[in-house]
Amino acid sequence: MSEQHTVSSAGTLILVNGKRIRGELVAGEESAAFYSKKSKEPVAQFRYARINRLDNIRHGGTFSTVTVVLKAAENDGQKYSFELNHGLKVYQFIDSHWTDKPVQPKSRADELKRLAELRGETIQKPRKHIFHRRHPNRSIGGDVGIYVLLVLVAVAMGFPLVFAIGSSLKPLDELFRFPPTVLPRHPTLDNFSDLIVTLGQSWVPFSRYLLNTVFITFVGTAGHLIIASMAAFVLAKYDFPGGKLFFGVATTFLMFSGYVTGIPNYLIMSRLRMIDTYWALILPAFAAPIGLFMMKQFMDGLPTALIEAAHIDGAGEFRIFWSIVMPNVKPAWLTMIIFSVQGLWNNPASTVIYSEEKKTLVYALSQIQAGGIARTGQAAAVTVVVMAVPILIFILSQSQILETMASSGIKD
Amino acid sequence: MQSNSLVSRYFSMKRESLKHGWALAKKRKVCYLFLAPYAILFFTFFILPICTSIFYGFTYYNILEAPRFVGIQNYINLILQDDVFLTAIKNTFVIAVITGPVGYILSFMFAWFINELPKWLRTIAVVVFYAPSIAGNAYTVFGIIFKGDAYGYLNSILINLGLLDAPNLWLTDPRYMMTVLIVVILWMSMGTGFLSFVAGFQGIDKSMYEAGYVDGIRNRWQELYHITLPSMKPMLLFGAVMSITSAFNVCDVPMALCGYPSTDYAARTVVTHLFDYGFSRFEMGYASAIATLLFIVMIVCKKGISSLLGKVGT
Fold first, then answer.
1. Would the N or C end of chain A have less CB density within 10 A of its end CB?
2. Would the CB atoms of B38 and A287 count as touching at under 8 Å?
3. ipTM score here?
4. What is the value of pTM for the model shown?
5. Is the CB of A179 less than 8 angstroms away from the CB of B156?
6. pLDDT tens for residues B66-79?
């Protein structure tokens, strides 16, 4: 157990039978041990199966077989219970060797039942329902109502987008049909092929516009992710003079749209000689307050003990940030990526970039859209192209967010 | 003598806390290092522009000539002489009061409902609800749906049903413009706040609900009030800030749908007005004054909301 270190706080170990032992929890890299006050030998030892999901250790609740309640002196007697069994598998150290199977958690309901049986009371079994209910305290009527409401509103939300996609697939004669239809009768990809022809005839090749946008979006998002996360990390996890003030100011700036700051921003960028370079788009994106805000809020939820433990192990700030904090806030950084990509991809940047060969894809496409009646079909195709990318990126990263979240849930 | 000693005590305490703060700052040098790249960029592209904006608000500035100091003349003109600005304030206020709270509550309710769905259905539902707000300028589709001639989708349906004799000019008739705008803005209101709510619901410790069942929480409303809302305070405040932001910064949608300028300025908002003076008439001083007023109103709103949310679930 040479890799272990002491969490300097007095604690109480609560055993299954309700017995409490006062002592100290010693948390190590791979295992934890509880020492009682009297003996030098550990009363109980636990080994974690997955150390990287430390956000499973949360405060509140008393469910598992072995709950360690820490009474930290600096927390004013506030109780923190480490639910070692939730998601984080725990192996117990019995008779000088580790158990083969992880310790099985017992729910509080089981515990109450056992206690009631000891008192000689009988517990009423809940009524069986025709439908299987995922939550014990939900009415079926309410569930049905919610489903109906969701379907209705989803149809209303989806309709304009379906309409846009439908229009892009319509041949020219159907675009001006009366009465108008939502879906095309003879779907065709003509509008998209026309769009490619139009773009192919442009002075600057289409691929250049695409490359510009991809470069701006990629560099802007990557830089934003790193720079804003670094700032969010110290703002969330350290108390230093000026930190709270800075975050307060940044939060206030969430409320400004580009129009409000547009003019002075232009003047500043021209001073910095950044007009007509990609940096005019990329550098402000690095400092987007929304990413900082999002990240800081999520990092607040990380257990401080995690960082303190790494400190005691002798890890530097940057190592803590990069290999402990960042892997644990994956959902937040995926969210940051979505916002950043959305802002950069949809930015026509017409005010800060003048050279045609540096212009963005959205700008080139909006020029086609402005082409009038003759280009109605192509304009519909443009709308679909522009909306497809952020939505696709969202769909892809959303599945990852759900995946990350799901792995931290309770396994029944 | 009494007051003198009090004053000296105050200053010695102040000095003491300064000394303490300086010591802490020295100890946490690394923190400033981590914060520096972000702070420098943030100062250059966010704080500095706002300060310049406040400064230009007190000047007459048309970009070509050097700014000329005019005191509070811009503000006097805005409030006492600019009738269009008063229309803009009225419209922005109507849009903000309706779409802000309604959009916020809808985002929360639907995030909550979606959270009850099985996982695969939830994935689809989140995409369907969130897509309109990230779909670039897809709201221009409403230009076809609400088109003023018989080819417009809504007109066509209403005429076929016999509810209308002649097509309505949804986007150019001042009687309908605001209603149409509010519908479109509500359609787009499941934005950042909604996403934050969805993530928040999933992040809540499931064992707290388990504890709720055992402790006798009977229905979903009790669970919402006693368990969910208190755990989601940060997301709730974030959603509120986002709602205020989008409600007050309405600009693209009326400009794209109702025209710029719109008939009788009936769809003019404060930001459209700012855009007009800043980007079309190049009266930067006047535009900056509008920006400053908007800034103050939004800060006051945010303060009000955060003190309101402080009481949730207690």
1. C
2. yes
3. 0.76
4. 0.70
5. yes
6. 888 988 888 998 88
